[in-house]
Amino acid sequence: MKKDIHPKYGKMKVFCACGNEYEIYGTKEKINVEICFKCHPIFIGTEEKKAVIGQVEKFQRRYRKKQ
């Protein structure tokens, strides 16, 4: 490999819009994100299941035996 062409890889800070901060490894010093694992609806359990239920009912209606 060629020398001095790869970016430096080290710890970086991630700042979320909700105020959460954490460290990961990457090529930049810091990064700002709008949503993280602490405030995303899937991870905190507030995601609504309406879409999934509607899809199941739609599937059942489509493939129901016709009498």
What's the SSE blueprint?
Layout: E1 10-16, E2 21-26, E3 30-33, H1 41-44, H2 50-62
Parallel strand pairs: 1-3
Antiparallel strand pairs: 1-2
Can you describe this structure?
The protein is α+β, with helices and mostly antiparallel strands and 67 residues long. The protein has a single domain, classed as Rhinovirus 14, subunit 4 (Irregular), CATH 4.10.80.400. The chain is 25% helix and 25% strand. Strands 2-1-3 form a three-stranded mixed beta sheet, with no helix packed on it. Strand 1 and strand 2 form a beta hairpin. The protein starts with 9 loop residues before the first strand and ends in a 5-residue tail after the last helix. The mean pLDDT is 81.
Give the structure's gist in a few sentences.
Helices cover 25% and strands 25% of the residues. The protein is of the alpha+beta class and 67 residues long.
Q: If you average the pLDDT, what whole number results?
A: 81
- Uncertain parts: none
| Biggest sheet features | 3 strands, mixed
Helix fraction by DSSP (H/I, runs of at least 4): 25-40%
Number of domains: 1
**Structural class assignment:** alpha+beta
In CATH, what is the class?
Answer: Few Secondary Structures
Please give the alpha-carbon distance between the first and last residues: 70 Å
Q: Tell me the β content.
A: 25-35%
Number of strands: 3
Which features characterize this protein?
67 residues, single chain, alpha+beta, 25% helix, 3 strands, Rhinovirus 14, subunit 4
